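Backbone Fold Data
Goal — fold tokens
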Amino acid sequence: MLINTVIIFLRDILPLCVLLCYLKVLFNHISYSPRSLFLALLAIVCCVIALLKGAPSISSFFDGAGVEVVSSSLLMLFAIGLFLSQISGQTTIIKYAVIVAVVSLASLKLAGFFHYLTVSVNSVGSLQQFLLACFLGSGITLSFAVLWLFVLNELKAKGYRVILAVLFSSFVAGHLAEVSDLLSQVDLIDAGSTAFVLENWLSDKSEYGRVLSAIMGYESSPTFAFVIAYTMSLVIMLIAFFKSNLALRSSEDSND
């Protein structure tokens, strides 16, 4: 149970922490009012409750593929939100786009996380062991998040925009590419055969694999559909990233 709980933290909570790190580094020029933050938090709470309480009803939609379709929709909203935040030059649009991205990903990840906690609490043999697992999982997750924030700040401070762009774009691409896996599970799309296998090198089910999955969408045995979706998303996000940075740099030059 200890290992499983740590993996769940890495699967569901670490991506949210990584997202907050990117928002802190890339969108530090955008400020939010307490009212906006409260409404975003309220939206997350409502969405998580709706996903947890309405899971039986949702699963009956789309001929039993409701959960996968809803999850895919939230991942696409997340990616679209961050894409719009990159290509838009209007502060208001950037604010709302980021909020949509955060609410979408947080709702999906927290719903899965709290579902696991609910099942674990009901079936746990020792409450002390469960609390220890949660403490260890949260400690590892927060420690990595602090380290990742430091790395991103250093990359930005030293002007390594290309590396920063690749990391951010791979983070978004990894989550968007998950849509191909979700939809192929319910035969809504044909994911094709396995493109390559890295299972012997590093399994995406291991702790290190989960970390790589959280920060860049790593899969040890991706399908061709996943690879195509990942590559296309990566290229699009890179273009959007450099477009936004060129616009920002031009604006700074004009102000000087």
User: Anything to note?
Assistant: The CA atoms of residues 155 and 164 lie 6 Å apart. The radius of gyration is 19 Å. The mean pLDDT is 88. Residues 2-255 form one domain.
